Amino acid sequence: MRSASKPNAAPLSARAERNLGVDALRILAIALIVMLHTLNQTGLIHCYRADGPVLQQLGENLVRIGGMGVTIFALISGYVLYPGRWRPERFLALWLQVVLLSLSLCVIGELIQPGSVEPEFWIRSAFPVTQRCFWYFSCYSFAFLLSPIVNRGVAALDRKQTLGLFWGVLGLSSGGSFLGYVYYGDTFALAGGFSAMWLVCMYVVGACVRKERIFFRAARWKLRLCAVGLIVLNGLIAWRVQLAGMSVAPFSKYSTPFLVLPSVALLVLAARLEIRGRAARALVRGIAPLCFGVYVIHVHHTVWSRLELCLISFKHAPTWQLLVLIPGFMLLIFLPSALYDWLRLRLFRLLRLDRFCARIVRGLRRLWDRLCRTFAD
Q1: Residue 114 resides in a domain
Q2: What is the total count of domains within the chain?
Q3: pLDDT tens digits, one per residue of 235-245
Q4: I need a labelling partner for 315 at 20 to 30 A (CA). Which of 9, 110, 212, 357 fits?
């Protein structure tokens, strides 16, 4: 998969300038996740299932494609954080973002409907990592803790070893896991992508892609063909398996290779993408930092329970209406969530919480150094 001419790729070495192509992919990932939740967790997917096999397969394939957003987020983490210095102050700021958003949404929910927020959700919002308020954030916390080890390990490998690690991790975590689900079950305890180890595996893959520029010399049309072809193939095979009366669950897992490999191809395409228009660059710069906040806000219990009640009322709408309503519902979820997180971002900048987090981390490091010297003596 080599093109005759050298691709005009975005520079990878410059840390000061964000890769706007990767930021654009981040926006696509959250859009896929919002689509997944809009279809799968509100009952709207059942509308398609009631309208015949063709529309049923359309709805189910949209859900599978939406699941790619989780894998893309994990790949981006590895791509962006490698080979940078481990910065726990950034994770502390992220944790404060989650806590502030969660608790503020609990307060708003209680003001709108007193007594609607149970004590359990207050506790989960105050301790989002250990109480698994948001499964992705809990798993990401584990992956972030291991990221300096992964970065140093990948940096110590030569090209052949890095390529071996890349294909080995992909082969076992995706291909091996897929075969395990077909014949035995969850062979590697990756929970189909709902686990910290899955995020670590995808982090390794993203780091390897950045280090060795894997597939960066491949023609763009081949990468696009790979992404679209595997997604269509996944849907067709799942359809035939379903007609045979067998389970299609392995084809719907985040870890299926038919969806993981297209995610890798999209990462490479995004990393090589150059966004030239001033308005487009400003739009990507403005929206990308809000993507994680959109995830936290729209899956929070106080928001999601009300969205469910709203969307489920359209469960028996005609199919043509659903095809129009689903993009509208996605915007209805995305835009208010992005606005709310933008206000949070402005508050953080006003209070200079990044400096506050940096001071806390410096204090913790000094305390740790003292403890290490004490025990060493």
Answers
A1: yes
A2: 1
A3: 888 888 877 87
A4: 110
